[in-house]
């Protein structure tokens, strides 16, 4: 669905993207993760045909954004920081206005989207009084009015509280599952969206430093397992089943194990002495992997 190969882009002689290559298959949710200024928004603008690449190949559903920008914009929805909503108009009026503008007026879809995004109760209120989260949700509704096959989201969780983030994750997951929408999400705090992404592309200073699914990244980057066990166990030598531990909180022990294969043996041993309420691997979530990928990239 998205094919990017060896793309380069400079602004005023300054290289912003270099040798950028990645793919997204139909129905995938890809997270594009990188710090401020890495070039994430520039990639969205290239994919959407708003700007052109200096070199390399870009295809969106087989189309070249440089020459087929208008066709691409028919099948793509974009959610950016500036949603371009009219504050004096209600949520419903905004959606109706843009649906007419885009030539896709479908009142039942507008009502469905207002309900899906939890805005039906506020649909008659002016957007000027909406909270940041409500505006963000309305921006998503606006972007998918024409039922796009592809959705690009630039920092969709900026300014949202934890409830708002959970809501956005839920809506994106529904759109992906129910409509089969392929989604590209750009963020510098993407680990909030870990539950919705199927794979990740890591961008740093305009270069792709890593890509893969969470389990592929886990296999590549997690050499030892840092395990936190919530247990009543205490031993005089700070060891359990031959593994040493450090106490990192009330009833919380931290073990460093050579691999996941050692976890059952360790837990069996602890359980024979005391209770265990939980055991959690701390270094294989997206946040931990993100920092590890960047650390190793800095070293090389
Ligand atoms: N039109 C432009 N003219 C000149 N420089 C630009 C232009 N657009 C982007 N840049 C520069 O390109 C770099 C990458 O910008 P971009 O907005 O793509 O980064 P980003 O990864 O989306 O960052 P953020 O997380 O802050 O949104 C920045 O240094 C930015 O100043």
From TrEMBL:
Domain ABC transporter, residue spans: 2-230
SUPFAM superfamilies: P-loop containing nucleoside triphosphate hydrolases
One Gene Ontology MF term: ATP binding
Gene3D superfamilies xrefs: P-loop containing nucleotide triphosphate hydrolases
ATP-binding among keywords: yes
PROSITE patterns given in the database record: ABC_TRANSPORTER_2 (PS50893)
Keywords linked to the UniProt accession: ATP-binding, Nucleotide-binding, Transport
Family: Belongs to the ABC transporter superfamily.
Protein name: ABC transporter ATP-binding protein
């Amino acid at each position: 669905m998205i094919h990017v190969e060896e793309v380069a882009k400079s602004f005023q002689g300054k290289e912003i993207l270099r040798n950028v290559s990645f793919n997204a298959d139909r129905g995938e949710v890809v997270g594009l993760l990188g710090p401020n200024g890495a070039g994430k928004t520039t990639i969205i603008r290239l994919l959407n045909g708003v700007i052109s690449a200096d070199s390399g190949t870009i295809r969106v559903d087989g189309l070249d954004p440089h020459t087929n920008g208008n066709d691409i914009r028919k099948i793509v929805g974009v959610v950016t920081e500036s949603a371009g909503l009219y504050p004096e108009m209600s949520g419903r009026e905004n959606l109706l206005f843009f649906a007419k503008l885009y030539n896709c007026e479908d009142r039942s879809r507008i009502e469905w989207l207002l309900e899906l995004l939890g805005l039906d109760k506020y649909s008659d209120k002016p957007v000027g009084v909406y909270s940041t989260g409500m505006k963000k949700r309305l921006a998503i509704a606006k972007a998918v009015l024409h039922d796009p096959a592809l959705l690009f989201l630039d920092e969709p969780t900026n300014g949202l509280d934890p409830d708002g983030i959970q809501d956005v994750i839920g809506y994106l997951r529904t759109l992906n599952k129910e409509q089969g929408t392929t989604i590209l999400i750009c963020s510098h705090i993407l680990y909030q969206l870990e539950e919705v992404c199927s794979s990740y592309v890591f961008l740093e200073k305009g270069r792709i430093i890593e890509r893969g699914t969470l389990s592929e990244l886990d296999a590549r980057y997690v050499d030892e397992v840092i395990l936190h066990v919530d247990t009543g166990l205490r031993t005089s030598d700070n060891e359990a089943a031959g593994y040493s531990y450090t106490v990192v909180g009330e009833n919380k022990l931290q073990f460093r194990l050579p691999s996941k294969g050692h976890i059952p043996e360790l837990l069996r041993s602890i359980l024979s002495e005391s209770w265990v309420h939980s055991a959690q691997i701390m270094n294989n979530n997206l946040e931990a992997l993100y920092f590890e990928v960047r650390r190793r990239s800095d070293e090389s």
